[in-house]
Each structure stands twice: as structure tokens, then as C-alpha cells.
Amino acid sequence: MRLTDTSDLWWKTAVFYNLDVKTYLDADGDGVGDLRGLAQRLDHLAELGVTCLWLAPFYPSPQRDNGYDIEDYYGVDPRYGSLGDMVEVLRTAHDRGMRVIVDLVVNHTSDRHPWFQEARTSPDSRYRHFYQWRDEVPDDAPASMFPDVEDGVWFFDETAGQYYKHSFYRHQPDLATAHPEVREEIAKAIGFWLELGIDGFRVDAVPFLIDGDDGPEHEFLRELRGYVSRRSGHAMMLGEVNLPYDEQMRFFGDADGDELTMQFDFVANQRLYLALARQDAAPLRDALASRPEIARGNQWGNFVRNHDELTLDQLTDAEREEVFAAFAPEKGQRIHGRGITRRLPSMLEGDPRRIRLVYSLMFSLPGAPVLYYGEEIGMGENPAIEGSRAAVRTPMQWTGDADAGFSTADDLIADIVPGGFGPGHVNVAQQRHDPDSMLRFVQNLVRHYRASPEIGWGEFGILDQPHTCVLAHAVTSELGMFIAAHNFAPDGRTFRLEIEGADAADWRVVNLLDDAAGAETLVDGGFEVSLDGYGHRWWRVIRPGERRIA
Ligand code: NOJ
């Protein structure tokens, strides 16, 4: 491990935090969150220990897909502020030691984008070839990603007199990314944001963007990554690739690691919910055991929840039904036949032991954690918004006031969560003063994650112990050795953990999270562990000659 690695490959140990400007804080009182509001809350994020913000799409957009329908790649939606306000946010975030990545949504544009408007007017339009047109719907057309909303992925445009492809909603025509001119335009937009000071991109819908997995398609991804790195030495690309592990490897660029820098771990995410439903760690343990090795410069993004439905599409039908039965018993809590529209705390009925178990896990697994705004205080969804991803896109809850301290306007961009997970019960202001709060708990996890770079850099190993409800794992590198144990069952468990190589008398384990139990234990080849029901523990192993502190 070289000294330069930790700063150059900063994403290996970053703490990501995703937020949508429009639901974060409304500074100008028009009911819509804005960049000036976000600027006022950067200290909340810095105090939490976040090291990289991921800003959801803030570009001009008709907002028919929450901003993932972009009509101008070079602007900021005027309701959120101006490019000048964006630069202030960037500058202030950087000043607080936080990097900023933005969504790159170039599989498709909005149908309001001037390119599409122009393209549909005539087959001779200079933008016609920016999109994908056919006279007939191809026989091998795939099913829509939104099967309950769209019949397919080809839509007949009366003005154009042809069908165009849309992998997502019909108002999101797919760009023809195989075309060199389209690639040039994508590169220009990337260049623009890098020049403005952005530190990287969350790349939307990557398997659709490169449309197939033959060599030339991956060549495009490799070119993009090369271009990003040339323009900005430290910039990275975190891609959305919801596929099985072996298929994900292609998107990292296999052993070369020269395509996406990072990918979300959708496999472990889905297996985690199955493990929670069964109160058995086995589904997650098996997934992690099969996680492929990635190149040194690549990283996994571990997450509990994101802004979309909690998709369970990689589970079998029977497994998905188990998770639905446990966590989304009502139809209105499900969407697209594959996902759940709830946040974790409400799925777990507010049980702090289980909620904390899950976040402890996320921060302890090899990779970099990615938080979704509001998770740090245990926000729930708005149950009144049925069968829609909008249920988890509600205003951030800053105070216990009826307006959640989000806005002074009467009419808000999204309704505030009502009831037991509403601002009266779940808010930042109250939790800041409560040492036992979720906010302080997550802050402590972040603190220990950041003090344990081996979690980002190390090698994962499952530790043997007799209980299938328990996941005990180690992450080891020359930086140190970290151990964690998590109990998915409601009753306590006691067992012994053997540590490889720890037969010398001067190996010690130091309890990390729970200060009361903070004692050091001498290791004699292993040590006794006692876990409460739904309990979690972290330890630092101090090997002979190491000068680590807890
Ligand atoms: C993935 C995004 O996360 C989702 O919100 C969006 O609807 C689709 N891509 C289409 O852009």
C-alpha cells in the first residue's frame, strides 16, 4: 500500500451521500428545495463525516421521471438556482473536505430535449441519427423496465412517422450512443462538469447505455473512463449495473479495471433483505462468498436503500414473495412486480436493534458505503403515496415542525411523511441532542469506518462459527485487521471466533463500537463472542507490533 493510494484512489474509502436538491432544504420559500438551501446544510453532512456527495439530477427537466428526463445537459433547473449557486455549493463542499459527484444520464434524454424535438421533424434532420428509429417494432424487442406503465420499448411518433426506442418511459427516447457525434456530445457534457469542479459521476443505467455486451460497446465505456481520467486525474465513475456478479465484472473492465471505477452491489443488497426476512444470515453470506475479486482501483458501493424501488429482481419468484410477505404485505407497498416502495425503518417496524444491525453491516462490508438522505435519522416513507417510487422521495426532516423545517411555503414539491415516521418523531434537530439517537449512531459508524481503511482496501473472509443466523467476517490488509459479527435472529448467540495466525500471546482485539464494553481482550488463537438478539459488534485486531488505536 503506497502513501499516494489513499488520496489518489479516494473512492476506496469514501462515505457517499445521495440527495436530491429539490427535497433537501428550501431557502427561498417557494416550496422547492434549492442549492442555497443545500449550501446551508453542508455542515450537517461534514459533521456526519460524509466525504462525497452524490447529487441527483438537478438539470432542466420536465420532471416526468424525477429529473432523470433531462432537457439540457449544461444547466441547472431555475427552481433550484443557477450555475453560480452550483459553483458555490461545490466550492463550499470542497472547503469542508467533501467531493461532489453528479448523475450522468445519457442513455436517454427527455423528449423535450431540443435534439429530439429537432430529430422528429424530418428524416433529414441533422439530429435524426441521435436517436434510434425503426419502421417496424423489431421481433426481438426486450420487455420494458416499467412493464406496468409501458407496453414495450418502441413507441410510434406521429410527427416522425417512425418508432423510436425508449428503454424506460416513452418520454425518454434512447440516444444512439453508437454514433460518433452522440459520443462527442456526451464527452462535451462530461468535460463541462469536470471543468466546473465536479469530482465524478454516478452513471445511470449503464447496461442500457452501452446497449449490448459485445466488444465495441465496452470499448465506449473504456473510452469514457479514459477521457474522464485525462480531463481530471482524480475523477471517478460510479455505475448503476443491476446484474449478477459475473456480468458486472465486464463493466469494471474485468481484471484491467479500466471501465467503471465503482459499481453498486445490487446482489448483496437484495440478498440482505432475504436474510432479514428469514432471520438467517445465509443468503447474504453465500452472496458475499461469491463476490468476485475486483481490480485494485475498483470498488463496490454498498447500500441499504436508494431513491428507486427496492428492487428484488435478482431473487427467485419464491424468494421475492418471502421478502414481500415480510416487508411489503400490502399491494400499495410494491411496484413493477419486483420492488418495494418503503424505506428500511418502516419495513422493520422501527425496531432500533434491527435497523442498527443493517447499517452496521453496510459500513463493515468491504467497499464504500452509500447513504440515501434521511437514512442517518431513520426516515420512513410516505405510505399515502401508494405504488410509487415517490413514497421515498419526501422532504428531508430537519425539525419537529409540521413543515419539517424544510420550507415555509404552503405548497411543497412533495408531501411530508405523516404519522410515526413524520418530523414530530424523526428529525435532525432532536437527534443532534440525543446521544442515543440514530444520527449519533450513524455518525459513530462513519467515524469508525473512516478510521479503518482496511474495510475499503482489505480482503474479505468469512469466519467460521456454528450459527447460521450469524455473519462473522474479517477484512484484512497490511493496514490492519477488522472483524465484525452480526446476528440476524431475535435471540442471543455465544460462540468462539478463531483468528488465523493469532496464536501468539500478544494479539489483542479491541471492541470498537460499544464504548461501555470497550475493553481489550487477549487473544489466544481466538476469542469468545456474545451477541444479543439482532446484535452487532466490531473489533480491531491489534497484531504484534501494530500501533493502532480504537
Ligand atoms: C435509473 C434511475 O435510478 C431511475 O430513477 C430512473 O427512472 C431510470 N434510471 C431511468 O433514468
From TrEMBL:
<dbReference type="InterPro" id="IPR006047">
    <property type="entry name" value="GH13_cat_dom"/>
</dbReference>
<dbReference type="GO" id="GO:0005975">
    <property type="term" value="P:carbohydrate metabolic process"/>
</dbReference>
<protein>
    <submittedName>
        <fullName>Trehalose synthase</fullName>
    </submittedName>
</protein>
<dbReference type="InterPro" id="IPR045857">
    <property type="entry name" value="O16G_dom_2"/>
</dbReference>
<dbReference type="InterPro" id="IPR054049">
    <property type="entry name" value="SupH-like_C"/>
</dbReference>
<dbReference type="InterPro" id="IPR017853">
    <property type="entry name" value="GH"/>
</dbReference>
<dbReference type="Pfam" id="PF22157">
    <property type="entry name" value="SupH-like_C"/>
</dbReference>
<dbReference type="Pfam" id="PF00128">
    <property type="entry name" value="Alpha-amylase"/>
</dbReference>
<feature type="domain" description="Glycosyl hydrolase family 13 catalytic">
    <location>
        <begin position="18"/>
        <end position="413"/>
    </location>
</feature>
